[in-house]
Inverse folding.
């Protein structure tokens, strides 16, 4: 019985190490300003690619989520995107993203207007 429990424990640990539990976000940049933050570019990939963008306010090193956007694309076609995050107060903002599965993203604009 002890051997069986040890084998099961080993299998569970091996699976947790082999399979990622969550996707990692990629840092797209940091910007200072106020007003309407525009983030644009294109993304694409195999399967049904999706793009997730998060905008964080950064105050004294503490990041607070202030905006999110998601867009789906078509297989093997690069899709243009433009997201606007309205009426942000003066401050420092960090933008990160995840493009998946098997997708990539290119940014043409990260600016306040």
């Amino acid at each position: 019985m002890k051997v069986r429990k040890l084998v099961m424990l080993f299998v569970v640990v091996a699976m947790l190490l082999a399979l990622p539990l969550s996707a990692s976000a990629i840092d797209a940049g940091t910007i200072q300003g106020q007003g309407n933050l525009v983030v644009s570019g294109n993304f694409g990939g195999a399967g049904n690619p999706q793009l997730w963008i998060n905008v964080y306010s950064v105050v004294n090193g503490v990041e607070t989520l202030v905006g999110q956007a998601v867009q789906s694309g078509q297989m093997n076609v690069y899709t243009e995107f433009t997201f606007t995050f309205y009426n942000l107060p003066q401050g420092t903002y960090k933008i990160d993203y995840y493009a998946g599965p098997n997708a990539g993203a290119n940014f043409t604009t990260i600016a306040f207007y």
Remarks:
- The mean pLDDT is 86.
- Residues 2-18 form the longest helix (17 residues).
- The radius of gyration is 19 Å.
- Residues 35 and 87 are 5 Å apart (CA to CA).
